[in-house]
Amino acid sequence: MRRRIMTRRVLSLAAAAGIVLAALPASAQQAVDVRVTLSNFGFAPEQVRVPARQKVTLTLVNSAKGGHNFAARDFFRAARVDPADAAKIDNGTVEVPGHGSVTIALTIDQPGRYTLKCSHFLHATFGMTGAIVVE
Ligand SMILES: [Cu+2]
């Protein structure tokens, strides 16, 4: 008898939790994955699309043997970066070692177009430039 009452209470708690989760906006539930590949000598995609006002998990993958970076000073200045990932960004630039990857969680409220390049010597000249479009 007592057990039956407990079971009922647990079930009603679970139902209440389900209602709360359903009421949350989609943006609060999960991050949007944005993946960018760095190679010799370019970014793919060249125009990186990032949704505004949503949690974003930005994953930078370097498919090359040598190092590249993701230099986007204005973008990172405008973004709110997860404190756990802040140390991965130095002066608006994220270094990605050869065959390595770096993941950064952030939110950006300001729509716009932000310039992107690799600031390694001559890499931008060789074509390693792009843009981040926040919309
Ligand atoms: Cu580069």
Automatic annotation (TrEMBL):
UniProt cross-references to Pfam families, sorted A to Z: Cupredoxin_1 (PF13473)
Signal sequence residues: 1-28
SUPFAM superfamilies listed in its UniProt record: Cupredoxins
GO molecular function: metal ion binding
Keywords: Copper, Metal-binding, Signal
Domain EfeO-type cupredoxin-like: 14-134
Keyword Ubl conjugation attached: no
UniProt-listed InterPro entries: Cu-binding_ET, Cupredoxin, EfeO_Cupredoxin
PANTHER family from the UniProt entry: AURACYANIN-B, COPPER-RESISTANT CUPROPROTEIN COPI
Name of the protein this chain belongs to: Copper-binding protein
Protein species of origin: Flavisphingopyxis soli
